[in-house]
Specification:
Length: about 325
């Protein structure tokens, strides 16, 4: 029921209802409504200026949650990256080393990875730095995993070939202990018996009786069997695979020819004095990846006593 307003009339001594014209009523109502609206707007904007709306609160909470999740993801990615680096290091130092495979360089293992410039699309995002960091690390993981899987493929292949590798790598003496008298020249720097100058000696010299059998020290293929009056004289060069070659020089006779497949312990010739030699001896070299190495490290078939006798039985240079 609408409220009615009354006014006191002193003449009639009574209260009389006030009659407000309809138009004025409407105008009053409109003004009231407008004022209410302005007050409401002021209250609303003041409130939202100082306080968050429920929707804003939800968005802010979601945003904080997203940041926490991103940071967690970044940490997990970083952990995976570190773990992968450890596997890479183990691969180079242990797995590949066991099978005598070349180590994979750090540049190849981490190569092919773009910088932050690849992720310009993240530039305008909130947390763009974090996103770029995660994307970059994920790229690194993808590349490292690819290289690592290739390396494992190679190692698996080498492991399957291990039996062959064991019988191929030079591992015995090229001359029987009973047949050689002494070692007259070790691997390394020594005085040249001809020029008396310091010169690097690429192998080990075993003196012995002419005609003593010389044995292949591992399975392989003969790549050279030459007769010469100079340098190495008559010599045999064997490729054992797996990066290994052996050379047997100053031979008296050669029992093999290029292309022959030979087995460890097979006679490839006899001890002699051909080429640049001061007396009957075998010059024996072990070459690994085109680099000469000390053959003494490759004699696995000797007893400790035999080895000590061989090493101590050094004669003066001739
Ligand atoms: Zn020599």
């Amino acid at each position: 029921m609408a409220k009615r307003k009354f006014r006191y009339n002193p003449q009639t001594l009574s209260f009389e209802p006030i009659k407000v014209p309809v138009l004025k009523k409407f105008t009053n109502l409109t003004i009231q409504f407008g004022l209410s609206l302005i007050v409401a707007a002021i209250v609303f904007f003041s409130y939202t200026y100082f306080f968050d709306t429920p929707k804003e609160k939800i968005l802010k909470r979601d945003n904080t949650e997203a940041l926490v999740k991103f940071e967690l993801l970044a940490r997990q990615v970083e952990e995976s990256n570190k773990l992968l680096s450890e596997i890479q290091s183990r691969d180079n130092k242990i797995y590949r080393a066991i099978f005598d495979a070349d180590t994979i360089s750090t540049s190849l293992r981490t190569g092919g990875i773009g910088g932050a410039t690849h992720y310009e699309e993240f530039d305008n995002f909130s947390y763009s730095e974090l996103l770029i960091d995660i994307a970059t690390k994920l790229d690194q993981i993808t590349w490292k995993t690819y290289i690592q899987s290739k390396s494992f493929d190679e190692v698996i292949g080498l492991a399957k070939n291990k039996e062959k590798m064991i019988v191929s790598i030079p591992a015995i003496q090229p001359i029987s202990v009973k047949d050689f008298g002494r070692i007259s020249g070790y691997f390394g720097n020594r005085t040249d018996p001809f020029t008396k100058q310091k010169r690097f000696h690429h192998g080990v010299d075993f003196t012995g009786t002419t005609g003593s059998p010389i044995y292949a020290t591992g399975n392989g293929t003969v790549i050279s069997a030459k007769h010469s009056f100079f340098g190495y004289g008559n010599f045999v060069l064997v490729d054992h695979g797996f990066g290994y070659k052996t050379r047997y020089a100053h031979l008296n006779s050669v029992a093999v020819k290029p292309g022959d497949t030979i087995t460890r312990g097979q006679i490839i010739g006899t001890l002699g004095n051909s080429g640049r030699s001061t007396g009957p001896h075998l010059h024996y070299e072990v070459i690994h990846r085109n680099r000469v190495i000390d053959p003494l490290n490759y004699f696995n078939d000797m007893t400790t006593e035999e080895y000590e006798r061989m090493v101590s039985n050094v004669a003066p240079m001739d």
